[in-house]
């Protein structure tokens, strides 16, 4: 299972700045710079949990404020396969966002595979 500390290690390995000093440690946030753009991609992560009020799945989300200061691109782990309803808007930026997301997912998969291989069978 993906945890704050594991994701923090992955992001640091990829060279991204991580902010883990948030109120109640509700989520981990990272800022991912993109060459040629003023705003960073903001990554937010929330661990899954169970409670009397209902279960919440883990959520890994990227959000990127565009140069117009109003438009935002959002991509999260639950919407990766959704159809783009406006494919002609911010085309280059959407490709960049997806590339960053895929890179993070690839690192998560590698770390998860390594953990499975190093864990003895019980």
SS-based class:
alpha+beta
- Tell me the strand order in the biggest sheet: 1-2-3-4-5
Query: What does the largest sheet look like?
Result: 5 strands, antiparallel
Query: Which range best describes the helical content: under 10%, 10-25%, 25-40%, 40-55%, 55-70% or over 70%?
Result: 25-40%
N-to-C terminal Cα separation, in Å? 18 Å
* CA-based shape: globular
Q: Kindly report the average pLDDT value.
A: 83
Gyration radius over CA: 16 Å
Element pattern in H and E: HEEEEEH
- Give unreliable regions as ranges: none
Number of helices: 2
Per DSSP E runs of 2 or more residues, the count of β-strands stands at: 5
Content of β-strand: 15-25%
Describe this structure in words.
There is one protein chain. Helix 1 (4-13) crosses helix 2. The mean pLDDT is 83. The chain has 2 helices and 5 strands; from the N terminus they run H-E-E-E-E-E-H. The protein is an alpha+beta fold and 122 residues long.
Features:
122 residues, 2 helices, 21% strand
């Amino acid at each position: 299972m993906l945890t704050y500390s594991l994701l923090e290690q992955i992001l640091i390995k990829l060279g991204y700045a991580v902010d883990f000093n948030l109120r109640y440690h509700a989520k981990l946030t990272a800022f991912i710079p993109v060459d040629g753009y003023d705003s960073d991609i903001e990554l937010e992560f929330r661990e899954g949990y169970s409670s009397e009020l209902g279960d919440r799945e883990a959520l890994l989300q990227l959000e990127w404020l565009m140069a117009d200061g109003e438009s935002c691109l959002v991509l999260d782990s639950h919407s990766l396969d959704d159809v783009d309803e406006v494919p002609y808007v911010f085309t280059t930026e959407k490709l960049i966002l997806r590339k960053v997301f895929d890179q993070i997912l690839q690192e998560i998969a590698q770390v998860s595979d390594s953990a499975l291989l190093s864990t003895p069978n019980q």
